[in-house]
Amino acid sequence: MHSSFTRRSLSARLILAAVVAACSSTDRVTAPLTKLEFAISDAVHEGGTPGFFFLPPMVAQPTVSGTFDADIATLNPQIAICDVADDLNCGGSSATLAVFTIATSPAITVDPAAQQYRVNWDTKGAGFVSGKTYRVHVTAGVLGARRELGFADVLLTTMPGQMKFLQPGDIIVLQHGRTLPIHVRIETGIPGGLGVTAATPSVASGSTDLITATVQDLHGALLAGATVVWSVTTTPATGVADARQPLNPTSGQTGTAGTTGTRFRAGTTSGTATVTATSEGMSGQATVTVAPFVITGIHGIESFLEKCPTNDPAYPQITQDFELLADGQPDLTPITCTEPISTLPISQLTDELIAEQVLRTAFYMSIGTQGKLPWTPKSLYAWMASSINGIDLKTAAGQLFCCEFMNGKVYFVASRQDAFSRDFKRTWSSISGSGISGSLGFYAHEIRHLTGPGHVTGCPAFPLPTDPVGCDATYNLTNLGSYGVQYWLESSWATGYLNIGIGCSSFATAMAYATSDANAANGFRDRFVTNVPPLVTAPQPYGGPCV
After folding, report:
1. Within a 13 Å sphere around the CA of 224, how many CA atoms are in the beta-carbon half?
2. Mean pLDDT of the 324-335 span
3. For 262, what's the count of Cα atoms within 13 Å in the CB-facing half-sphere?
4. What angle do CA 338, 343, 348 make, to 5 degrees?
5. Residue of 105, 188, 391, 523 with fewest CB within 10 Å of its CB?
6. Which of 202, 406, 197, 187 is nearest to 291 (CA)?
């Protein structure tokens, strides 16, 4: 027997339909006004998912232009039905009254010739009551790219033609006890998954962060040509994002890699920015923390490192706080230095001079860092000076550890370097990450061994229990390990949170320094077993503003 139902498109006016029965002209429908919004959502109705259509006999034949996706095994469609008044998580909750899949009876099947998926819903099933409205949900896609494609509301009635007072919307009216053929069309290229990531989880005031959206189709394949719209909300509501142009651009289309991006520009107020990407009914978010950058005592790292540590007013204090040893004995090697260091003969760029330059950098970088380092309440230099008494330079190769204990004192140990390696120590950083920044990071790494958590195995760099212990168990800001300290420092220099005047150099040099720091930070990500820290991208202005 054919189904007996009609589809009603309800106008903005409240509609009262006569009861089609042997009644007097004074008979009226007396059902109360419902407060629910009845609707059909697909590519034609309610601005639903493009590429998804309900088909006759539920609705009129729509105009379609896309390619039908007949891969029923991959799409694994599901149709779930719930009372519209108890519809939360339909298909996954106890309120679900019926579920159809490719494995149920009856099962959803595909008709390639008619280019549709179909299943019959027998409304005589348990739980379905005349006079109630039910919502039919359609879901499809692989795990990770699975989504609801649309829904349709169906009113069950005992008398064909009967309608209630309803809010404006679309609804299908069906005589209770009949069978409703549910036919739908799913086309290729429908977005199924949307992921959003921030290049760095925190930025300094006035800096930018690259936010990237990645769109997958229902098969989990990267999807080109998807439109993504960007928006941002902040806590507090003002000041966290730049008032003039917080996002640029505000929309875009994914390329062949399935990605598109926007650049978030931070304002001057500390807080949290939530950047949201939306695409065809889906949304994803990335959170960025905006914090005032720490203004250190270095206001131009490039020019700072051209100066000799022996000429610095802080040199007596540094030599008092840190003793240099040579193979366990007081280092009596004279340090001679002529500026600029970039032209200093390599014979004068000794391991002793480099060590003093690293300590001088820590001394001035410490200004403003007290209470700002996650692993200590002290400033950087004060933490180092309170932890070790000096540095023991070893002739033997391969020595880099903490610590050596002699005469009640604690020494960080490092091997002497050849001329090729020492030549990189003239500047802050290099492509290989072997400048002064790398040395300072290693100093901090080894000193952290005195009080921080020890190394373990199990990270990508050392996955086996028999491997050397060269991993941090986790990246935990409340208890950073040695690699965590290195990552934090390098990422803070790259993003400008620790402002050492990278931005005071030329654009090319600032970009090279900040990018090198970001690469160095990312190079430590394979040293964490769990909670791997995020990828770091150097935002503009590189290394933070010149202050």
Report:
1. 3
2. 93
3. 27
4. 55
5. 105
6. 202
Quick count: other Cβ atoms within 10 Å of Cβ 79? 23
Q: For residue 342, give Cα distances in angstroms to 277, 357, 364, 381.
A: 47, 13, 20, 25
The mean predicted confidence, pLDDT, of the chain is 88
Q: What is the dihedral of CA 115, 119, 121, 126, to 10 degrees?
A: -150
Residue closest to 166 by CA, chosen among 9, 20, 58: 9
What does DSSP say about strands 147-157 and 169-175: parallel, antiparallel, or unpaired? parallel
| CA separation for the pair 290, 234 (Å, rounded) | 10
Mean pLDDT value of segment 116-132: 92
Spatial strand order of the sheet with 191-198 comes to: 191-198, 208-217, 259-265, 247-248
Q: Where are the alpha helices (DSSP H) in 368-526?
A: 380-387, 419-423, 436-448, 482-495, 507-522
The pLDDT of 209-228, averaged and rounded, is 96
| Mean pLDDT along residues 138-153 | 96
- How far apart are the C-alpha atoms of 258 and 400, rounded to whole Å? 44
b/e per residue 216-236 (b: at least 16 CB within 10 A)? bbbbbebbbebebebbbebee
Q: What is the pLDDT of residues 45-61, one digit of tens each?
A: 988 999 999 999 989 99
Instruction: Label residue 484 by pLDDT band (50, 70, 90).
Output: very high
Please state, in angstroms and as integers, the Cα–Cα distance from residue 370 to each residue in 366, 379, 381, following that order.
Answer: 7, 4, 9
Q: Which residues contact 84 (CB under 8 A, 6 or more apart)?
A: 36, 38, 132, 133, 134, 135, 153
Residue 152 class from Cβ within 10 Å (0-12 exposed, 13-18 middle, 19+ buried)? buried
The domains located in the chain, with CATH, are 5-186 (no CATH), 191-288 (2.60.40.10), 294-530 (no CATH)
How much of the chain exceeds pLDDT 90, in percent?
A: 74
Q: Can you tell me whether residue 311 is helix, strand or coil?
A: helix
Work out the average pLDDT over 280-296.
90
Q: How many CB atoms lie within 10 A of CB 149?
A: 28
Residue where the block lists tokens 């005195």: 450
Amino acid at position 10, single letter: L
Question: Rounded to whole angstroms, how far apart are CA atoms 344 and 306?
Answer: 9
